[in-house]
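Weekly structure sync, notes
Attendees: PL (lead), two postdocs, one rotation student
Agenda item 3: pending single-chain targets
PL asked that the sequence for the first pending target be pasted directly into the notes so everyone works from the same version. It is reproduced below exactly as submitted, 224 residues in total.
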Amino acid sequence: MRTLNLSGRNMVLALTGVAFLMAGCSTIDTSNGVRTSSKTKSGALIGAGAGAVLGALSNKNDRRKNAVIGAGIGALAGAGVGAYMDRQSKDLRAQLETRGVYVTRSGDNIILNLPSDVTFSSGSADIAGSFLPVLDDVAIILNQYPSTYIDVVGHADSSGNAASNLTLSERRANATAGYLVARKVKSERIYVAGVGDTQPIATNATPEGRAKNRRVEITLRPVE
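Predicted structure, written out during the meeting:
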């Protein structure tokens, strides 16, 4: 188990590795109830579209669903799934319209792209004070729509070596998830992973491109 000390708050949050997920070897941190895994498995998601793999496997994991249901969160069914995610997507767009957060829809999933140029300083996992109100807005909507899993995936640019970039991406994802938990988003809904610099969305040859690649993505998936 790997414990991260984030701005004076111990947040033990991780979900790392296909083998780990399939084995169901998660533990619970007694301080915050968030599911935790060993960092040694984190490389298993790299290069496979971490958000998609993470959600596809974790949504089928009985332990995750049981934890969510046990926390009093109801599951969605049938036509209600699409309508629920439609409303959530609409409310997120309205809440975050001027916040610099990109909200996209992929089937029944909703993806929030939190660009690191406004969220974190270069090389840092400390959330910028100016971005805390944005995360407050995200938490408001997440709490209004509890019947969703929340997968938080951190990314880094290509500065530095692969190992340090992986660690930095994990720390950024952990910091984001930890802040949401502090804003009363139920920890049972959240899994976290970092994928380092393996999934750039822009060139790493320019400062502007590197800023886009330093990011955290939150994928919301219906509890079914």
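Discussion points:
- Helices lie at 18-23, 50-60, 62-70, 80-95, 116-119, 132-144, 162-182, 207-213.
- The CA atoms of residues 52 and 219 lie 9 Å apart.
Action: rotation student to compare against the earlier draft before next sync.
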